[in-house]
Amino acid sequence: MNLFDKFTAGLPLPAFLAKYGTDGDRAKWARAAEQILLTDAQKQLLGKFTRRTNVLVLAGAWCGDCAGQCPIFERFAEAAPVIVTHYLDRDEHADVQAALKINGGNRVPVAVFFSEDGHEVARYGERTLAKYRQLVSQQIGETCGTGLVKAGDPVQQQIAQDWLDEFERVQWILRLSPRLRKIHGD
Fold first, then answer.
1. Is residue 2 predicted with pLDDT exceeding 70?
2. DSSP label at 119?
3. How many angstroms from the chain centroid is the CA of residue 39?
4. Burial of 98 from C-beta contacts in 10 A (0-12 / 13-18 / 19+)
5. What is the DSSP letter of 60?
């Protein structure tokens, strides 16, 4: 399956939430988004991104992990307009979910990164290392988090940094790509 074909079927976050979310879901995502603040250093790093990065995000409007993490991507795109995110609903796009299983299971959110011309660069998801460390330390087996995000929560700040590290890694893969350097003359 060519996942980049699905990128064009994806929706920007507001349209995704309008189509798939309930009023309660949208409120949960909005509360989470209000709490996500990037540091000046993170904004400066994102400001250095020059290659368009298409990001397909498989998500569920109902999912607490998605509500807690996906607004981070939107903050990245605000600071780096070369990042373009499109969202697909996990349940409506079962073929994509099947292609993006993690450890044999249906997980969200999962991000697939593409170059400007549709080549897959990387996949990352469903929870970051910081979140898994928190879950292990708490010894809980929650199947889907609440999506509650607290201002100044050090775990949430590290989750944002974990995602930023992956976005940065993808940007440098794209920036150093001989194929793209030839196209852009740099």
1. yes
2. -
3. 18
4. exposed
5. -
Provide CB contacts within 8 A for 99, sequence distance 6+: 1, 3
Hey, how many other C-beta atoms are within 10 angstroms of the C-beta on 176?
10
User: How many angstroms from the chain centroid is the CA of residue 18?
Assistant: 18
- Give, as one character, the DSSP assignment of residue 105: B
Q: Is the pLDDT of residue 146 over 60?
A: no
For the chain, the structural domain boundaries read 3-184
Per-residue pLDDT at 64 exceeds 70? yes
d(CA 33, CA 106): 24
Helix (H, G, I), strand (E, B) or coil at 11: strand
In residues, how long is the chain?
186
Q: Do 42 and 164 meet the contact criterion of CB atoms below 8 Å apart?
A: yes
Q: Tell the residue number behind the tokens 């893969």, with chain if given.
A: 173
Nearest to 75 by CA among 161, 154, 153, 151: 161
> Which residues make Cβ contacts (< 8 Å) with residue 89, sequence separation at least 6?
16, 19, 20, 59, 60, 61
Give the architecture-level CATH label for domain 3-184. 3-Layer(aba) Sandwich (3.40)
User: Do 68 and 159 touch, CB atoms closer than 8 A?
Assistant: yes
